[in-house]
Amino acid sequence: MHHLITEMQYALQMAARCLNSTGRVWLVGGSCSLLLQGVEVFSPPRDIDLYADMNSVKTLHTRMEQWSTDKQVLNKSGLYSSILSHYQLNDTQIELVGDFRVTAKGSQYTVEVEGRLHPYAPEIELDGIPMKLMPLSHELLFNLLRERADRYEAIATVMRQKPEHHVPLLVQLLDNNRLEDNHIRHIAELLELPSILQYNAYDRN
User: Fold this and answer.
1) What is the per-residue pLDDT across 71-91, written as a single tens digit (0 to 9) for each?
2) Which domain holds residue 121?
3) What is d(CA 88, CA 73) in angstroms, rounded to the nearest whole number?
4) Is residue 1 situated within a structural domain?
5) pTM (global) more than 0.85
6) In a domain, 204, yes or no
7) Which InterPro entries does this entry report, sorted A to Z (predicted)?
8) Is the pLDDT of residue 3 over 90?
9) Exposure of 86 by Cβ count < 10 A (0-12 exposed, 13-18 middle, 19+ buried)?
């Protein structure tokens, strides 16, 4: 397992202790989550990304408001739509992302933290403080949609080592979102799983 630099780990521990007290569901995502799951990341994390659903993000923001640098806003930028806010904890920036949606080249992916991702999220402890990490199946889809080959190739390498840990959630994500055929084919190639090809871009909803 890779480790975060001391300052960022300390900030993550402080944020986790604070957010855990709300009883709400949230997950650590981005490069911090990848590092903590043994995925090779070529540059150190610049910030900490936290994800939650619409029904939790306001409560989480209120709990971290002592560190906030802006207000929560509906942010629509490029591929993304989310409820977004930022925080500064010592020298570490934290980003809280709620109701996150990605649209890219005909594919549409909605991030469902509590009902979909949280049950599969790996749990870790940093100096006794528990937190859960974004499952790699989410990270694979997200980074594929935003064309981050350096990320999705490294993620797929780890997923191929224990596909039984990752494929059940991946199947759910493909079943409940709309991905165009090229994205489906790419996932099948990355994971060396031809069975994924059955999830073509028909309208499942």
Assistant:
1) 999 999 999 999 999 999 989
2) 6-198
3) 17
4) no
5) yes
6) no
7) NT_sf (IPR043519)
8) no
9) middle
Number of domains composing the chain:
1
DSSP labels for the chain? -----HHHHHHHHHHHHHHHTTT---EEEHHHHHHHTT---SS--SEEEEEE-HHHHHHHHHHTGGGBSS--EEEEETTEEEEEEEEEETTEEEEEEEEEEEEETTEEEE--IIIIIGGG--EEEETTEEEEB--HHHHHHHHHHTT-HHHHHHHHHHHHHSHHHHHHHHHHHHHHSB--HHHHHHHHHHHT-GGGGG--S----
The answer as to whether 45 is a domain residue is yes
pLDDT tens string 149-181: 999 999 999 999 999 999 999 999 999 999 999
| CATH classification at residue 29 | 3.30.460.40
Give 89's strand partners.
92
For strands 73-77 and 47-52, give the pairing.
unpaired
